[in-house]
Amino acid sequence: MDLAPSAEAVEVRRSILADGVIVAYSYDLIPLALMPDDFSTDQLDGSLFAYLRDRAHLFPHHGVAEIHAVHSEHVGWDDPEHPDLYVLLDQLHYDADGTVLMYSRSYFIEGRYAFTVVRSS
């Protein structure tokens, strides 16, 4: 994220649901310097992108992700089926000027989510 070693960041860990079923686990970091002066973690309920846009006046434009298959017994929490196979999107999110807004590691449970990748040059 090109942050100074002394920079602080907000860490958000969340479960992502579809129709009440966990489909992914996400670990996100947002530089604290980008957040509004009145920021409180209590404000983070729902879409992080909506929060960035509506409360912080930051506008995510694009992301760059590496995609990996991951086997882990340590990623998921609060899922009674205890999945251990994931598709990891290791991703940086940028605004239109190229400023990094957020770093995300999203672990999508295999078989509960489908991706389509469009490549262009």
Automatic annotation (TrEMBL):
What is one Pfam family matched by this protein?
Answer: UTRA
| Domain of life of the source | Bacteria
Q: Which residues form the UbiC transcription regulator-associated domain?
A: 2-113
InterPro entries documented for this protein? Chorismate_lyase_/UTRA_dom_sf, UTRA
Spell out the protein name for this chain: UTRA domain-containing protein
